[in-house]
Amino acid sequence: MTQHPDALDLDKKEDQRLKAEVFLPDDYQPVEDEPFMNERQQEYFRRKLMDWREDLLAGSRDTIESLQDGTRAIPDVADRASEETDRALELRTRDRQRKLVAKIDQALRRLKEGEFGYCQMTGDPISLKRLDARPIATMTLEAQERHERREKVHRDD
């Protein structure tokens, strides 16, 4: 059974209301000596992911506007080619960011389900430093390195 879009909006609003109850000072930084993925850490990463997501979406909106406004006839062939190259690069960048937004959404889902911060390969906690640097990380640094070594070995075959 699928939920009505309005029901999803209500879920989001309820989730936001519940999360707003977690007090988080502006200068809060997760530290290793507090319980892993406690409410404050979860809220810290939720806000970090949501802010990152909003920045990416705002950039996408700006790109769409500039591409719509930027359609003009450029008589010089070299200038037109340069502008087309710039547009292609911008679109590739936005496509990568679209994929990043999907990964952010997955991280937010893991956060909601209580799986955020734990390695998908080993189940071990991912270091707070790694999560702070890359909040979409799904593996510990060691598991990621093993994964990349295996990938490289298979690619070289």
UniProtKB/TrEMBL annotation:
GO terms for molecular function: zinc ion binding. GO terms for biological process: regulation of gene expression. Residues 114-149 form the Zinc finger DksA/TraR C4-type domain. GO terms for cellular component: cytoplasm. A zinc finger (dksA C4-type) spans 119-143. It comes from the Bacteria. InterPro entries: DksA_N, DksA_RNA_pol-bd, DnaK_N, Znf_DskA_TraR. Keywords: Cytoplasm, Metal-binding, Zinc, Zinc-finger. It is found in: Cytoplasm. The keyword Cytoplasm applies. PROSITE patterns: ZF_DKSA_2. Belongs to the DksA family. Interacts directly with the RNA polymerase. This is RNA polymerase-binding transcription factor DksA. It comes from Pelagivirga sediminicola. The gene is dksA.
